[in-house]
Write a structure and sequence with these properties.
162 residues, alpha+beta, 5 helices, 8 strands, 2-amino-4-hydroxy-6-hydroxymethyldihydropteridine diphosphokinase
Amino acid sequence: MAQIFISLGSNVNKEHYLRQALIALKPYFPDFIHSSVYESEAVGFAGNNFYNSVVAAKTDMPLAELCKLLKKIELDNGRTREDKKFSPRTLDLDLLFYDDIICDSPAQLPRDEITKNAFVLQPLAEIAPDFFHPVAKLTLAELWNNYNNPQQKLWKVEFSNP
């Protein structure tokens, strides 16, 4: 079974779409762990604030199949392939880690925004502080403790899992 981490984000009807993502993931990963939900300002464009969180799970699903599943869940929740990278979105599901695999296809692993964005790194470090980043060669807790980007502010929000 592979250890996986998936980031969830939304800035359009954000509580609804985050909840829908969790509902959609549950049948595939019934024992997933969900981090706290954090609100943050949009990064890279002017837009509504985002809700972000991370899910940790174990799976025997092959990497390519998992990537297809995440894209399908996004599409089922109003995401379109025409959406620009830095734009509002109903749902963004990004695979962050698949065990310690390092690759660029079918997904960039580990995802480079782990070390760049507080809204990814903080929830990751919250639920898996001892997980080792295979490129940075540090644990997620160490990466979070070393993180320094005062431009990125985020705060926990009340959110009850479905």
